[in-house]
Amino acid sequence: MTHLPIALDAMGGDHMPEAAVLGARQAHERGIPVVLVGDAERLAPLLAAGGPELPVEHAGDVIRMGDDATQVRRRKDSSVMRCMALVKEGRASAAVSMGHSGATMAAALLSLGRLRGVERPAIVTTIPSERGPVALLDAGANADCRPVHLQQFAVMGSIYARVFLDRADPTVGLVSIGEEPEKGNELTLAAHRLLKETAGVRFHGNVEGRDLLAGTTDVFVTDGFTGNVMLKLAEGEARVLFGWVRDALASGPWHVRLGALLVRPALRSLRSRMDPHSIGAQPLLGVGGNVFIGHGSADATAVLNGLATAWRAVSANLTDRLGAALLELAASADPVEEARREPT
Amino acid sequence: MTHLPIALDAMGGDHMPEAAVLGARQAHERGIPVVLVGDAERLAPLLAAGGPELPVEHAGDVIRMGDDATQVRRRKDSSVMRCMALVKEGRASAAVSMGHSGATMAAALLSLGRLRGVERPAIVTTIPSERGPVALLDAGANADCRPVHLQQFAVMGSIYARVFLDRADPTVGLVSIGEEPEKGNELTLAAHRLLKETAGVRFHGNVEGRDLLAGTTDVFVTDGFTGNVMLKLAEGEARVLFGWVRDALASGPWHVRLGALLVRPALRSLRSRMDPHSIGAQPLLGVGGNVFIGHGSADATAVLNGLATAWRAVSANLTDRLGAALLELAASADPVEEARREPT
Lengths: 344, 344
Known about the structure:
Two copies of one chain form a homodimer.
Chain A: E1 6-9, H1 18-29, E2 34-38, H2 40-48, E3 56-58, H3 79-88, E4 94-97, H4 101-112, E5 122-127, E6 134-137, H5 147-164, E7 171-175, H6 186-196, E8 202-207, H7 211-214, E9 219-221, H8 224-250, H9 254-273, E10 281-285, E11 290-294, H10 300-315, H11 318-333, H12 335-340
Parallel strand pairs in A: 1-2, 1-4, 2-3, 4-11, 6-9, 7-8, 7-9
Antiparallel strand pairs in A: 5-6, 5-10, 10-11
Helix pairs in contact in A: 1-10, 3-4, 5-6, 5-11, 8-9
């Protein structure tokens, strides 16, 4: 399984196919096998320009950012649908796309289906915190959620934190507007009661907006609306605050500008910590295969990082482990199935 | 009206009554009249210790952070309820409390009622952005909202931006998960359609999490759950990022530490820009009087700043102007009343 290449959508995204070819070559050099999925005629000259030869799977169509996500249903020759087909046919171990994220999700659901026990797949994102990286989900796949969806996100997030963040027994926080169980909206009040009773989830209780960067818990569970607003606020604020620091240092008197020269490298490494391109692509948890979604603005470095992230997931059997944990959850919710299970 | 003092809840909050007395004295020295509302026996020695004499209105009870907000109904002698009574009786121009914010809201609704046309009062908060301060509401008063509530927040936020942020014709953004009108959750999809048709609101369209610190619009409208998560995330992230900057500079080699010494004052002024104490208290928009809610952690400086904010609102007739704008909205929604209105 881990010897199969990763199918990279070489067409979806702002800087494709150039960034895809460059990033895939860098991944290849690091031992990550990649198959480029896209327009063979456009890819040929880029590949001919030198560097290692990479396999190409032709796809004659591409879903653009402005297209409706549901078009994947009848555009089977689109690069993102071809990626999913390779995974489904057992010819690729994962699919990675920097294109239209709604279309990627629709294509994954259509081609690979959902894991048993998952009603809604979720995008999980990793946020740097004071206590190291933490997982936030759903980061935007489901704008409206029910309590049971948040419960499934908590199970999937716990597995993700074990596999990706090396946490032996990760804590899960429910994003709300007060630490007390009785603070929240209708969704979180009901989800809180459900999470308290969920086997396999080490539930910390409610967490607040300030807890995300503080890293109060390993996993932050929320609906896809709130999660997407949080992710984009966190990224945007880092950009603005580091910009303010840069401007304050550049416009000060001579001794401040001298000081700024001396501290510049230290500040630069901090900025890269908050740069979304450093992770490259985020897993779509809950579909029947390894699927990764990146920013449309991805450059070659982001493509390389996204492929490396996908390769870690493949090597760690992320999807299989998710499937097993979800079966446990389903069994514990169903007494008959519970009785049938082998004792663990 | 503007000669009436501001009623300050001298008991509610972590550092009361000491911070209240100190802050009120500093406000008094700047020409802002204040009446301290709280336990006269506890206040007397603090006032006797020197400095200008301030009027005291006795309140024998105080709502604590752990109390249920609805207790204000039967605890009429609590400091927060006494503050509202002073406003209602025309003996104070505004009420300011750093105590239990839910109790302050409940007390305000119970004593002062709502402005006509407002179903749900909202807490508005000011966020520093790249383009200057912007307003975010609701910051936590209403965890679950309907589209019409967001419409009323947009009207109130527009008036607030005119009066407090000096914007002649403020733009309003609806917080969502994509710029396109068809992106969002059920609440924002319906609110988007409503806001497009709302007279008196210059609707920009959807905005995203990243737009808050970028200051894309003057007003950001959202439900109280999302708004509270955004506010606390923004404050918490600033604390963490500036902490990282401090640590990176303090732990570097000698030339970095030298540079850090030189840039320290420039960075300190940046940090204060993101400090919630610099505003002190936020208006509760939509109740029948000027009511301001501050952080429980408020110190004397936060009390002073909160009193100054309240004094600006009183001087600018914020509540009267809100009332007039809301009547306009109600009239435009009602064709019969519309026909009765004077042409503008």
